Amino acid sequence: MEEVENKLNDYKILREGEAEIIMLKKNAVFYNPVQVHNRDMSIAVLRTFIAKRKEEHKAMMDKREKPRNKGCHDRSSSPNGENGSTGQQDEMDAVGEKEINHVADEVEDLHLPKEATKIPLWKVARELKEPTVLEALAASGLRSLRYAREIDGLGKVVALDIDTACVEACKRNIKFNGSSVMSKMEAHLTDARVYMLTHPKEFDVVDIDPYGSPSIFLDSAVQAVADGGLLLCTATDMAVLCGTNGEVCYTKYGSYPVKGKYCHEMALRILLASIESHANRYKRYIVPVLSVFMDFYVRVFVRVFTSAIEIKKTPLKLSYVYQCNSCDSFHLQCLGRTVTKDNSVKYAPGIGPVVPQECSDCGKKYNMGGPIWSAPIHDQDWVISTLMDVKSMKDRYPAYKKITSVLTTISEELHDIPLFFSLHNISSTIKCTSPSAVMFRSAVLNAGYRISSTHVNPLGLKSDAPWDVIWDIMRCWVKNHPIKEQPCDTSGTAILSKSPKLEANFSRAVAALSKAGAKKVNRFLPNPERHWGPKVRAGRKITSKHASLLGPDVINHVMNGAANPEDGNVPMPDKPTPENGENAADHEDEPSTKRQKTDNDELATEP
Ligand SMILES: C[S@@+](CC[C@H](N)C(=O)[O-])C[C@H]1O[C@@H](n2cnc3c(N)ncnc32)[C@H](O)[C@@H]1O
Ligand SMILES: [Zn+2]
Region (Disordered): which ranges (predicted)? Predict the structure, then answer.
């Protein structure tokens, strides 16, 4: 009896959302509580996916029924009635009607996202099956359990892990969550890559949430997603994606990062470019619906389609980045271009370089990065639908505040502008007091350009204004807010040595106050908990070896037995930066009085 009790003492029950898991108190199976943001966001997007999929299917079916309604023949008399037909029978029916030859014409006038129309009508089964989910790297299964319990209209959920303890825990957790979960969820001990390769196009949803980099799973993951399905992918190797190890990033993702304030957005775009590259190998391509940088990781939600024609357009969605190594200016060069000849469209390599050898603003050299995904990283319709849906069921999201703040900020981003700059950084470059965000935004708007915030950084600004306009605005600002004389070899001095061609107008433009500022809504919340961040692998003993990953403070903390003794997971130390805690809206109206960057300061932020 005592033995049983001792055994029970080894376990604890954890609840997140509507799911419960039994955890061994020692660090046997991975669990990171702050990833509730990640799981909540995923649930929100999956709910949107289910709704959109239904809408798309209905529109396709309406379209397919149309010719018949016009009097071809009465389909309802078919022995395979509306509910009884199989996808295969549907295909044969439809092919018989020669619809296959007219797919392109037929779908043209459907009010559907362009991509959904790429699926031939004859391939669309009349009965829409509930979407199936594959969580390839499931650990305790918590994420899958939440999907199975909380998302209505979901089909089978398959959870995989390569680790025996994880799969045992997952199976235990399935039982623990009762019959509704047991009837739709299963767990398998396997290498996810092998499983995905042997189940091509079989899952409507594939979720990849690895330790660190997802790079080794991408090739098999893009093949396991059904046409029009959704791939959800996390990467927590931010140091790699943000440029600490450029060469490692290239080997994992096929792109070079550059150090810039925008590095976390660049991380998203490198990951998207890499997924697209894997997809292209199988005549497939991606359409991002939401891409987020949250807490300490990036997470992308992309749909996967197949089309030999569409994949030729991939180079139009990719760009190299030229980042000046001294000032803030950066430029994008698209990999491809469209050539139209005799009514036919072809795709050719881009013409470059788009920049001279020396930065046209300060005269220094450029670093080159990419290729990155430079097409939109979100679908505004999905973002708004997801946000509205989340707001309509507040109680069902433990991380409601976090995910609504992120989605709201994303909904306000300029979706067609890759990357961003920081007002504080450009002020630092020329060693001036920063204009207030409202004043600067007004000057950009008054000059005839667009400007928005970004969810990635509370101080970031996205704009279609070219760099000479941005610098002209700052030159005009400095005229009225003179600075101390600077050494003649700095990039700031070079920029200010030119006269502005534009007379900046700082008078307040109506649209200048960001919506966050106007509504006084928090867009950037403080860190989720005191010691937060990625956790080390389950089962690993924390030793001084981990100092470079976790920092010496944390190691000392653990060695003294103080860190998170319950589950053995060790958190990252807090980095109190404006990026992770400060609400930019609070400061929009105030010119900065902070000391600006010195010559020795780096342009880049730490990942
Ligand atoms: C970060 S954890 C997953 C966390 C989980 N998705 C969640 O939300 O709680 C990564 C998991 O991937 C598993 N894993 C690593 N390589 C794998 C592979 N090749 N196939 C299947 N699972 C693998 C590990 O055992 C680990 O449990
Ligand atoms: Zn420059």
Answer: 56-89, 557-607
Q: What is the CATH number of the domain that holds 228?
A: 3.40.50.150
Q: Give me the residues near ligand 2 (ion), CB cutoff below 5 Å.
A: 324, 327, 329, 359, 361-362
Within a domain: 117: yes
pTM here is 0.82
| Axis-axis angle for helices 142-150, 164-176 (nearest 10) | 30
Q: Is 51 exposed, middle or buried (0-12, 13-18, 19+ CB in 10 A)?
A: middle
Which ligand neighbours the alpha carbon of 328 most closely?
Answer: 2
Tokens 């395979």 sit at which residue?
A: 80
- Considering only CA atoms, which residue is closest to atom 17 of ligand 1? 162
Check residue 515 and give its pLDDT.
Answer: 61
Tally of CB atoms within 10 A around 262: 28
Ligand 1, from 162, 188, 216: best to mutate by most atoms within 8 Å of Cβ? 162
- On whether both 84 and 184 belong to a single domain, the answer is no
Pair 170, 105 in one domain: no
Residues 146 and 114 placed together within one structural domain of the fold: no
Whether residue 209 is found in the same domain as residue 249: yes
343 in any annotated domain:
no
Q: Which residues of the chain have pLDDT under 50?
A: 70-111, 542-607
- The predicted-structure confidence for 62-100, as pLDDT tens digits, reads as follows 887 776 554 444 333 333 333 333 333 333 333 333 333
- For a mutational test of ligand 1's pocket, the pick from 161, 185, 197, i.e. the residue with the most ligand atoms closer than 8 A to its C-beta, is 161
Tally of domains within the chain:
3
Calculated CA dihedral for residues 531, 533, 537, 540, nearest 10 degrees:
-20
Structure tokens at 102: 């007219």
Q: What does the pLDDT read at residue 125?
A: 75
Instruction: Tell how far the Cα of 193 is from the centroid of ligand 1, in angstroms.
Output: 12
Judgement on whether residues 176 and 239 belong to the same structural domain of the protein: yes
Structural domain that includes position 155: 133-310+374-392
Residues 147 and 198 in one domain: yes
How many angstroms separate the alpha carbon of residue 485 from the centre of ligand 1?
56
Radius of gyration in angstroms for the set of CA atoms belonging to the chain, rounded to a whole number: 26
Per-residue pLDDT, 80: 33
| Angle subtended by helix axes 263-280 and 215-224, to nearest 10 | 50
pLDDT digits over 389-447, tens only?
A: 999 999 999 999 999 999 999 999 999 999 999 999 999 999 999 999 999 999 999 99
CA of 135 to the centre of ligand 1 (A): 9
Residue where one domain finishes, among candidates 64, 98, 123: 123
Residue 427 and residue 463 in one domain: yes
Q: How far does residue 442's CA lie from ligand 1's centre (Å)?
A: 48
Interface confidence (ipTM) of the complex:
0.99
- Of 91, 123, 155, the domain-final residue: 123
- Identify which ligand lies nearest to the alpha carbon of 322: 2
pLDDT at res. 279? 98
Same domain as 251, residue 171: yes
